Amino acid sequence: MRHKKTALEKPPRREGFSWRYRKIKQQQKPTLWHCHEEYELALHRHFVGTAAVSHHETPVGHNHLMLIGPNLPHAVTSKDVEGQQCETHVVWFRESWIKQLMASCEELRNLTPLLERSKLCIEFSERTAEDVFQLLDDCPNTSPIDQLATFLQVLSVLAQDSQSKTLLPTALGQTNIDDAERAKIEKICDYLARNMAKPITLADLGKVFHASDSSIQRLFADHFGESFSSYLKKLRLGHACSELQMTTKPIGLIAESVGYRNLSNFNRQFKQYKHLTPREYRGQFKRGAS
């Protein structure tokens, strides 16, 4: 897998949650080099492909589980297997948040070695991957408090895996992004996430952040490898995916909450993005729960 330019990614938000979880089903997973400030736990099922972390590659099959430390560039790609959908369960959590929990709860301090080893990317045993799947699969159907308890149980299972191994020899694989630019793009992305329900243009961002249209476009090209409009569309549709999966809100209400005033336009763009209509996308998770 060729190491292309790394894009800075913003994991999807979950309103009312301190950590983030998403279940993704797709026919084929494209290669996208990215990194982010959060830890990422990625579980792949019904999968044939390759994972790359920094310059290390490892094969990915059914029940492959990795914990990737903050700012490690990585990408996962799959082969198209006829009649089989790739299933990915992804958990993201911030370093500052988990460290606050560990400082307050002595029981969690045993997680320190796990988090330190994740800077080299940890690959877990298939048994642990199956145990994590059993914990996460029904997680979205439980209360926020029960979901937090599940998250902590997942970390406990990971910490007890004596067969886990690190993939990188050193932590040199972490990407370096200019602190000032990182801070600026973080503020812009936070603004977009808070205001995605409203119409937002480049000119609007320029006024808020006292920057020219061209400088904002350059930030998105440098950090995400795409235009501002493309990023905003993916942000809105990604949030819609979470709402379709985890709530029973009407599709029209979800479309409006992510900035689409025209339902037909939302349906068309969603199908281009996920190759399913919003109703079909929601339906596949209902079938999975039954």
Automatic annotation (TrEMBL):
Q: Name one Pfam family in it.
A: AraC_binding
Q: Does the keyword DNA-binding apply?
A: yes
Task: Give the GO molecular function terms.
Answer: DNA-binding transcription factor activity; sequence-specific DNA binding
User: Where does the HTH araC/xylS-type domain lie?
Assistant: 186-284
Going by the UniProt record, its keywords in alphabetical order are:
DNA-binding, Transcription, Transcription regulation
Tell me the InterPro entries matching this sequence: AraC-bd (IPR003313), Homeodomain-like_sf (IPR009057), HTH_AraC (IPR018060)
Q: What is this protein called?
A: AraC-type DNA-binding protein
The organism is Enterovibrio norvegicus DSM 15893
Taxonomic lineage is: Bacteria, Pseudomonadati, Pseudomonadota, Gammaproteobacteria, Vibrionales
